[in-house]
Amino acid sequence: MKKILLKIDGMTCSACSSGLEKFLNKQEGIKQAQVNLVMNNASIEYDEKILDISKIEKFVEKAGFESLGIDKLEKEEKKQSKEKYKLVVLTILAFFILYISMGQMVGLPIFNIINMHENPANFSILQLILSIFAILLGRDILKNGYKNLIHKTPNMDTLVGLGVISSLLYSMYNTYRIFLGNTEVVHHLYYESIVIILFFIKIGKYIEGRNKDKTKEAIQELMMITPSLATIEKNGKQIQVTLDEIHKGDIVICKPGEKIAVDGEIVEGTTHIDESFITGESVPVKKHTGNKVIAGSINYDGSIKYKAEKIGKESTVSEIVRMVVEATNTKAPIAKIADIISGYFVPAIILIAIFSSIIWLILGKDIGFIINIFITVLVVACPCSLGLATPLAIVMASGLASRNGILIKSSESLENAHKVKTIVFDKTGTLTKGHLSISKIYNYTNLKEEEIIGVIASIENHSEHPIAKGIVRYAKEKNILVNLEKVSDFRNMSGLGIEAKYNGETYLIGNKKLMQENNIFLNETIKERKISDDTLLEKDGNSILFIVKEKKLIALIGVKDIIKENAKEVIKKLKNKNIQTIMLTGDNEETAKAIGNEIGIENVIASVVPKQKAEKITKLKENGMVMMCGDGINDSISLVKADIGVSVGSGTDIAMDSSDVVLMKDDLDRINDLINISKKTMRIIKQNLFWAFFYNICMIPIAAGILIPFGISMNPMFAAFSMTISSVTVTLNSLRLKKL
If you placed Cys at 377, which of 237, 353, 435, 673 could pair as Cys (CB 3.0 to 4.6 Å)? Predict the structure, then answer.
């Protein structure tokens, strides 16, 4: 199987995209086609033994659209939409035709030349001309309805098209009768219904198009967030280049106020960088040598050099654009159900319209009355609100989630998040920060704690050991000065620790064995305290560093992977939701249980390799829906196996391909937000579907004339208006998802 992304021209509404999608999925050789109205493209998976791109493009053409070739998701120039002007003209036409046809009923002055009683021929011809103009402005609706009808995928445009054509033909027939002298049929013209129906439908499509354009603009803005030019260092010279000219390994220079051009790692300099577009964090982050930088982020106050690592489609921004585009292709199961219902609904409405017309014909009603019934049923039943019920709520919820730092890759994940019974957490990098740091210091001197850390970090900066890196990182996070110039005679002792001079004084930093080999003798007071402190640090899961200055112990430092600040509170909230929490880690059982006890997770499964993790997830799924939260790298198998995989990590480390949801802010509490958004979204969708179906159940019988014996009837204009009101109701209800 092969997959391509084609750029499609000619799609104007959701009816177009759904019709094309259904048509493509019926073709032999196409395994799956997903048409994206927002991006005007189609993702098509096909059997290359049966089809090639040219044959697929012919399918697109046969469906009534045009393929513009492979979509490279490149930046597009903003185009001026003509729909706004069409709607303005259609509004004017609607006003005039209503004034002409109904003005005199409410006492408005009408020129005799177009008065329905004085000059019925002029009256009918003028309305015919106005309605033809309206049909030309709304021909896309009729064209789309026709295409979907011949492809056996009738939709709301099909209903509208049938209603408009029926009204036009019957009204033209009566216009002909007026010219033959039968002026009584002037009361059976439905030209105004044509214009008003198209007017209301066009309003709905214009709003839909505006929302689509806003979504597309947001994606385009994301694509344009990186600068067009950058400065690289080559052979000692600074050269300005385009992004396409940057290669992996190039040293890129970024000055204060400039944007980071490509993803990379700082090799020189310190600065503060605004990464709010990717992390949602409003406060600029301090960056120094060894830290990662993300393309599109803004350099605030320092000049830095960084090595290019991810360029072009590999960059974080490009990955997010791709994910957003793919996410707009996906449909939640509840949306698929609505699509299936709509597939049966439209043919059923056509049959009801025909059946109602036949019944009234049998009852002896005239052709004008029957046509009115037929058109009204078709128009009132247009499933606009049904079509909006799910996708609009999903779009609103996805936007709400993204504003809260949650990137949802599939609407199925959004639908299912509130159904989760068990959440499995990886330990390192998920519940903990994922790197070693100082957890506790026992200071046996009169020196300030910051002074001791400054000396140790200055010495450890010469070591590549993970503990050394953790101490240096801690010092930089706390803005403690690291003075490398004062360090001399550095010596690494494998398996023991290090020795060096700082400001001319000799320091030993290492484990207990290093102390023993160097005959470090302790006075009784410090010795007693040392034993007590040593035991406490070990029980708390720390690696212990003994700090010796000139043969005298001055401090003990405990180093371990620190638990994230809000982990305990997050677990408590999940338990309040009756969700089982489990820690699944490859770490040893003693350390894992200590972490679990501290944050409130009783069920701890330790010492498991990635394959065993996946097996545990599969087993847990037997008892209900499972969410897996991991750092997205070592846990990729488990993330895929779980019902919902949540990647927790920084913007540069997240495994976007293996998870369903990405927490961009690296904040575990976003899991609770995700569950709450999911719950609220499904409630809104169910309400939308209820009102959409309730509306149709109530209105269709009235449109069919069931209340006529009681003096209650409906005409096509009111049907079009009420259909619009139902769509507005669904839209307003969905807008409640703007806030969590």
Answer: 353
Cα–Cα distance measured from residue 398 to residue 738, given in angstroms and rounded to the nearest whole number: 10
> What CATH number corresponds to the domain at position 499?
3.40.1110.10
The domain of 505 spans 432-562
384 contacts 688 by C-beta, under 8 angstroms: no
What letter would DSSP give residue 115?
-
Asked if residue 509 and residue 492 are part of one domain, the reply reads yes
| Gap between the Cα atoms of 243 and 227, Å rounded | 8
What CA–CA distance (Å, rounded) separates 729 from 727? 5
The two beta strands, 30-36 and 41-46, are antiparallel
Q: How many CA atoms lie within 13 A of 64 on its CB side?
A: 23
CA-CA distance, 540 to 543, in Å (whole number)?
9
Closest to 137 in 3D by CA, of 65, 79, 206: 206
Crossing angle of helices 139-150 and 156-179, rounded to 10°: 120
Q: Is residue 73's pLDDT more than 90? A: no
Q: Is 140 an active-site residue?
A: no
Cα–Cα distance between 43 and 33 in angstroms, integer?
Answer: 6
Both 536 and 465 in one domain: the answer is: yes
Query: Does one domain contain both 102 and 185?
Result: yes
What pLDDT was estimated at residue 83?
A: 75
Query: pTM above the 0.70 mark?
Result: no
Distance CA 335, CA 589 (A): 44
Hey, CA dihedral for 7, 11, 17, 23, is it positive or negative?
A: negative
Lowest mean pLDDT among 250-259, 507-516, 672-681: 507-516
> Does one domain contain both 437 and 548?
yes
Rounded distance between C-alpha atoms, residue 142 and residue 396, angstroms:
30
pLDDT at residue 335 greater than cutoff 70 = no
Res 19: pLDDT: 78
Higher pLDDT, 294 or 501: 501
Same domain, 255 and 176: no
Say if residue 119 is exposed, middle or buried (CB neighbours under 10 Å; 0-12, 13-18, 19+): middle
Q: How far is CA 133 from the centre of its chain?
A: 40
CATH of the domain at 6: 3.30.70.100
Strands 505-510 and 497-502: antiparallel
Residue 340: predicted pLDDT: 63
DSSP 71: -
Q: Mark residue 550 as left, alpha or beta (left: phi above 0; alpha: psi -120 to 50; beta: remaining).
A: left
Asked whether residue 234 carries a pLDDT value surpassing 50, the answer given is: yes
What's the alpha-carbon Rg for the chain, to the nearest Å? 35
* Nearest-angstrom CA–CA distance, 36 and 330: 9
Backbone angles phi, psi at 637, to 5 degrees: -65, -45
Q: Mean pLDDT of all residues in the chain?
A: 81
**Alpha helix stretches (DSSP H) within 301-383:** 316-327, 333-362, 367-380
**Beta carbons of 56 and 6 less than 8 angstroms apart:** yes
Helix (H, G, I), strand (E, B) or coil at 655: coil
* Number of C-beta neighbours around residue 16 at 10 A: 26
Residue 334: inside a domain: no
Last residue of a domain, one of 520, 547, 562: 562
Find the catalytic residue in 71, 157, 426, 666: 426
Spatial contact of 260 and 254, defined as CB atoms under 8 Å apart: yes
Provide the token pair at 76. Answer: 């597009």
Same domain, residue pair 427 and 438:
no
Taking a C-beta distance cutoff of 8 angstroms, is the pair 46, 31 a contact?
A: yes
Please say which residue of 562, 587, 622 terminates a domain: 562
Kind of pairing, strands 661-663 and 644-648?
A: parallel
Range list of β-strands (E), 289-417:
292-293, 298-299, 304-310, 406-408
| Contact yes or no for 644/417 (Cβ under 8 A) | yes
Question: In total, how many domains does the chain have?
Answer: 5
- The bridge status of strand 251-254 relative to strand 304-310 is antiparallel
What is the β-pairing status of strands 2-9 and 41-46?
antiparallel
Q: What is the structure's pLDDT at 672?
A: 94
